[in-house]
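WARN retry 2 of 3 for item q-0093 after timeout on previous attempt; input resubmitted unchanged.
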Amino acid sequence: MDLHSTNVVTQLIDEHDRVVYRNKQGCDLVDILRGLEPFQDSIEGLAVESTYNWYWLVDGLMEAGYRVHLINTAAVQQYEGLKYTDDDTDAF
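OK item q-0093 returned
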């Protein structure tokens, strides 16, 4: 989940790294949970970018029963050969 001050880009991938869900929406926990709901039983974990405003999202996801991983983006190695980055590649 690529988190910003006013929006979050969520991508869910399957075991073959195929995107099965992608959504860019406002920072509203109810809406975010509503989008994840159809996939809840198959989600093994959610990775959330550790920006300055991550607390509400991580707390809300954990309260809803999701396993959450807080990610330090400075420590994540990008895919080799990646020429640019945007919200979708960051979320992926």
